[in-house]
């Protein structure tokens, strides 16, 4: 029988946490606002778990896990969720791979069935592996049509020397061309075990009945030993780095990255506040935040770059991760503006905040923005469940509920300290996409 | 002050009333999160661009919120940012939209600000200059991106460069360079009028409070109705046309393949909706996804979309493929469309798509933003306050023969327009 680890009382609802005998962590929250239910299956495997030669294997495995299993033949994959008006998807990133379905509540057991099959018995038919190889190469090339994506890839690979966060989640092209079906299946069997997973259920459901369904569907899946993970610690950076991508194009792009603290680091939330001051608050939901632009017109870098006509847009990216990743600032140069000028203005603003910190008014505004974003990004059961699973996978799910308190508690000194320690030229990598004539 | 409110009691049951000045107010109370979505839709999309000034409505969307007669751009920025609100302005062929979500406690103040932006923009010259350089950069980015190049190329070839649907939404650099404060002000005065605005407010706010706030925010804004515009019906293609736009610096090509179909008020609309869903939407891109993505592994994305509007809109197939696969992908699209037009859908496909579309309604209406967008669509096309209640029946009533007839009517590869943009400089057939 599963043991109940904890019940977390909340203002409107509760999250129940259970760990099955096979190690599967289950989080269930009743939300009765719409006749819907959502299921997310999370795995602690992402591109950071990939060795050279096998980059992109986690993402390719994600694709394969939509291509049929022992009890869901290839031609029956379609329609199980669709008949309930449901939506399904999945994504892979540096720390995690996840799958989701959201549909009317009567589809709950079907969603659990799909996720249990995904964990235990996907097929990896060789012909399907080959079809996905070319689909993923098409996905990669579609991404490379975007100069911003190309630059981001080069910037990340320059900022990291040792850590496996350095390679793109989609993988390097040559690895995608040479990986085998056995590479894929081996990666799948190693990491898709219940003791490496979190299952999240949120919606108009009965929590006790849902737990019973989970035990029925997942209880017999055996736990496994995932062995030693690829582990590396990024050595301290010894000086500013720089990379330039030269390719035909119409528009110039700038990115400035600094090594950032991991999500559970005491410096993470002060950096979140600092980013809100520099580029506007994005919130912390990787699934929802890119759908709504941040409030940023009074942000320092917007004022310095966009309002001064140097950039047509700016952005900041700081996302909670399992290990220290990057805080990246991006700008698109307006036509006719040299990248040197955009960079100079950005660096002046960054150096100033590193030297002088932020004002009390900016702290108040940043906290208000982040508080509002936390409300806005939890407007659907899909988003709520995403956040529980996301934080459970990169750290602890309680961290999601603790965020609001951590944001409120941030002080001016903490922001000054993180600005001084992180936004330091020694910790900086600057990337240019400099369009060349065709 | 206001006309008698109309309230429908089943389903979504939004409240609707029209202010004395002609502005339509829609609201729906959803006490799920302490937030409210404000969605203002103005009949001032790109079809209203003067024929020699395409891109004007888009430029308006970039400048309307950058200063009013009583607030500077910085003051607006501060009012929004200090409440965590991000105001999104966008434009489609038909409408200019201003949308944002705010905390319920800030609702009245944010609505008053949105109303001020809609009614009294001042288009300060310095702001117009910086937004112009942003717009020009956006146009240059589009020119370097095979997806918008292919779609713009298709629309221009399908509708003709003079038709409002054939022109680029963002216009061209020489035109944008001519647009100044006076041009923007004149366009705003001609097209942004109370009777052309529909305001939807959805969230943790009771309809009486929403109604009072809307009446207060737009009080005193009076203007004559905008004259209706006359959009010429497009000429239907009589033969297959192909066009290649080489972009040799790119990694992958985009295909845009399409037809001119029907207007939204065509009685066959629901049959077309289902036909498009079966062809290029269901699950991973319908029949097209099965063939081109799942079986042949040629593309990460392939799908079709239908934009039936006040004028006959396009049915468009889209795919991203390597240059080596262009001919095979186009031939596969031809084959799937030929088969659908010849034989129609199977009963199973029709049942599957109906179940999906009917069942997906609660998801569509889960969030405040989703409800607001749904209410605006229903209002724009005059579908009624109880449209959410009627949609399932309208879809269920469609027969297989009607979907087959829709496919025969709309989908004929020998009259398709096919545009390819990407690293390819050969020809296509």
Walk me through this protein's architecture:
The complex is a heterodimer of chains A (about 450) and B (about 425). In chain A, strand 1 (about 5-10) and strand 2 (about 15-20) form a beta hairpin. The radius of gyration of chain A is 22 Å and the shape is globular. In chain A, about 40% of the residues lie in helices and about 20% in strands. Chain A has 2 domains: about 5-220, Cytochrome Bc1 Complex, Chain A, domain 1, CATH 3.30.830; about 240-435, Cytochrome Bc1 Complex, Chain A, domain 1 (2-Layer Sandwich), CATH 3.30.830. In chain A, the strands form 2 sheets. Chain A has a 7-stranded mixed sheet, with helices on both faces. Chain A has a 5-stranded mixed sheet with strand order 8-12-9-11-10, sandwiched between helices. Chain A has 14 helices and 12 strands. Mean pLDDT of chain A is about 95; it is low at about 1-10. With about 450 residues, chain A is an alpha+beta fold. In chain B, about 45% of the residues lie in helices and about 15% in strands. Chain B contains 16 helices and 12 strands. In chain B, strands 1-2-3-7-4-6-5 form a 7-stranded mixed sheet, with helices on both faces. In chain B, strands 8-12-9-11-10 form a 5-stranded mixed sheet, sandwiched between helices. The radius of gyration of chain B is 23 Å and the shape is globular. The mean pLDDT of chain B is about 95. Chains A and B meet through strand 6, helix 3 and helix 11 of A and helix 2, strand 6, helix 4, helix 10 and helix 12 of B.
């Amino acid at each position: 029988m599963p043991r109940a680890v904890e019940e977390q009382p909340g203002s409107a609802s509760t999250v129940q946490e259970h760990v099955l005998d096979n190690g599967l962590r289950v989080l269930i929250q009743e939300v009765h606002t719409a006749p819907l239910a959502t299921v997310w299956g999370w795995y602690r495997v992402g591109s950071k778990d990939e060795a050279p030669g096998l980059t992109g294997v986690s993402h390719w495995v994600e694709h394969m896990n939509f291509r049929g299993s022992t009890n869901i033949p290839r031609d029956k994959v379609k329609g199980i969720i669709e008949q309930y008006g449901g939506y399904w998807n999945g994504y892979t990133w540096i720390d995690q791979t996840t799958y989701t379905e959201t549909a009317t509540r009567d589809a709950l057991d079907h969603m659990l069935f799909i996720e249990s099959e995904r964990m235990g018995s996907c097929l990896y038919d060789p012909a399907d592996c080959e079809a996905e190889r070319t689909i993923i190469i098409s996905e990669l090339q579609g991404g490379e049509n975007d100069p911003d994506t190309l630059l981001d890839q080069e910037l990340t690979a320059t900022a990291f020397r040792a850590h496996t966060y350095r390679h793109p989640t989609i993988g390097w092209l040559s690895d995608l061309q040479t990986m085998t079906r056995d590479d894929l299946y081996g990666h799948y069997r190693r990491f898709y075990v219940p003791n490496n997973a979190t299952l999240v259920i949120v919606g108009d459901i009965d929590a006790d009945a849902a737990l019973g369904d989970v035990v029925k569907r997942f209880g017999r899946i055996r736990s496994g030993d995932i062995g030693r993970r690829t582990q590396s610690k990024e050595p301290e950076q010894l000086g500013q780095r720089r990379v330039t991508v030269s390719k035909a194009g119409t528009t110039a792009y700038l990115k400035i990255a600094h090594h950032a603290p991991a999500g559970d680091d005491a410096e993470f939330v002060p950096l979140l506040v600092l980013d809100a001051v520099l580029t506007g608050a994005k919130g912390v939901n990787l699934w929802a935040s890119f759908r709504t632009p941040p409030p940023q017109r009074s942000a320092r870098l917007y004022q310095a770059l966009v309002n001064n006509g140097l950039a047509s847009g700016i952005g900041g990216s700081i996302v909670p991760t399992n290990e220290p990743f990057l805080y990246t600032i991006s700008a698109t140069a307006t036509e006719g503006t040299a990248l040197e000028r955009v960079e100079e203005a950005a660096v002046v603003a960054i150096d100033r905040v590193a030297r002088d910190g932020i004002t009390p008014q900016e702290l108040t505004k940043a906290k208000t923005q982040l508080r509002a974003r936390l409300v806005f990004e939890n407007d659907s059961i899909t988003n709520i469940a995403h956040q529980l699973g996301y934080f459970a996978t990169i750290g602890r799910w309680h961290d999601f509920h603790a965020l609001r308190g951590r944001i409120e508690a941030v002080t001016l000194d903490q922001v000054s300290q993180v600005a001084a320690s992180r936004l330091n030229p020694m910790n900086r990598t600057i990337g240019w996409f400099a369009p060349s004539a065709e | 002050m206001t006309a008698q409110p109309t309230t429908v009691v089943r389903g979504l049951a939004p409240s609707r009333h029209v202010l004395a000045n002609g502005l339509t107010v829609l609201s729906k109370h959803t006490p799920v999160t302490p937030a409210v979505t404000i969605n203002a839709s103005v009949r001032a999309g790109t079809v209203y661009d003067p024929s020699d000034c395409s891109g004007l409505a888009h430029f308006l969307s970039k400048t309307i919120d950058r200063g009013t007669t009583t607030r500077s751009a910085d003051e607006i920025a501060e009012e929004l940012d200090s409440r965590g609100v991000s105001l999104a302005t966008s434009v489609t062929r038909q409408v200019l939209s201003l949308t944002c979500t705010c905390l319920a406690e800030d609702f009245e103040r944010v609505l008053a600000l949105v109303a001020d932006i809609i009614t009294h923009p001042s288009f300060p010259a310095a702001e117009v200059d910086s937004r112009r350089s942003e717009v020009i950069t956006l146009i240059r980015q589009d020119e370097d991106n095979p997806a918008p190049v292919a779609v713009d190329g298709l629309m221009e070839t399908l509708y003709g460069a003079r038709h409002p649907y054939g022109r680029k939404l963002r216009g061209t650099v020489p035109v944008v360079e001519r647009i100044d404060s006076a041009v923007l002000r004149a366009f705003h005065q001609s097209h942004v009028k109370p009777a052309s605005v529909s305001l939807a407010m959805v969230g943790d706010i009771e309809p009486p409070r929403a109604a009072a706030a809307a009446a207060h925010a737009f009080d005193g804004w009076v203007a004559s109705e905008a004259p209706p515009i006359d959009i010429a019906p497009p000429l239907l293609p009589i033969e297959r046309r192909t066009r290649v736009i080489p972009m040799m610096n790119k990694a992958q090509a985009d295909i845009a393949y399409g037809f001119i179909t029907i207007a939204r008020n065509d009685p066959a609309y629901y049959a077309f909706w289902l036909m498009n869903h079966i062809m290029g939407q269901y699950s991973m891109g319908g029949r097209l996804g099965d063939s081109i993505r799942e079986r042949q592994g040629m593309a990460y994305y392939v799908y079709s979309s239908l934009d039936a509007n006040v004028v006959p809109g396009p049915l468009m197939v889209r795919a991203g493929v390597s240059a080596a696969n262009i001919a095979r992908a186009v031939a596969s699209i031809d084959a799937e469309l030929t088969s659908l037009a010849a034989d129609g859908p199977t009963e199973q496909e029709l049942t599957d798509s109906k179940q999906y579309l009917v069942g997906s309604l609660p998801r569509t209406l889960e969030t405040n933003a989703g409800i607001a967008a749904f209410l605006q669509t229903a209002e724009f096309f005059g579908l009624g306050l109880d449209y959410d209640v009627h949609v399932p029946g309208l879809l269920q009533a469609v027969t297989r023969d009607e979907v087959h007839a829709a496919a025969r009517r709309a989908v004929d590869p020998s009259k398709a327009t096919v545009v390819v943009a990407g690293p390819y400089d050969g020809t296509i057939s």
